[in-house]
Amino acid sequence: QVQLVESGGGSVQAGDSLRLSCAASGREFSRSAMGWFRQAPGKERDVVAGISWSGDITYYADDVKGRFTISRSNAKNTVYLQMGSMKPEDTAVYYCAAAGSELYSGPLYDEGLYDYWGQGTQVTVSS
Q1: How many CA atoms lie within 13 A of 1 on its CB side?
Q2: Displacement of CA 106 from its chain's centroid (Å)
Q3: Could you report the per-residue pLDDT of 46-76, keeping only the tens digit for each?
């Protein structure tokens, strides 16, 4: 059974930093793209960042570019999201996702790419 488990969410002040982790189990994702999405109250789920299986290609949504960094450890089967200069509009439930296909080289922002999802972790940024 494949599981993606996010951790590291919480409540912070505007300008603070936070690091999310997503540990995968039940399958190795070292050759699969992984990503982070978020859903704010009353809004649709949107892509935040994606990373290729090799880690050398990344994608960031415009509103987090320069503030967030996605990375991965294939040895630990884990993907990370380092969030900095946080804003109240970053408040959302953050979801980790992993692709079922391997060696994918297409758009990392495509939600349809991802077959496995975590349960989400709440991030709240107060002003």
Answers
A1: 3
A2: 17
A3: 999 999 999 999 999 999 999 999 999 999 9
Question: Is residue 19 within 8 Å of residue 35, measured between CB atoms?
Answer: no
Instruction: Quote the CA–CA distance of 113 and 52 in Å, as a whole number.
Output: 11
What tokens does 17 get?
A: 């930093």
Q: Return the bridge partners of 59, or none.
A: 50
pLDDT digits (tens, 9 = 90+) for 11-43: 999 999 999 999 999 999 999 999 999 999 999
Share of the chain above pLDDT 90, in %: 95
Distance CA 12, CA 7 (A): 15
10-13 and 121-126 as β-strands: parallel, antiparallel, unpaired?
parallel
For residue 127, what are its two tokens?
């002003």
Q: How far apart are CA 70 and CA 67, in angstroms?
A: 10
DSSP string, 38-89: EE-TTS--EEEEEE-TTSS-EEE-TTTTTTEEEEEETTTTEEEEEE-S--GG
Give strand pairing partners of 96.
36
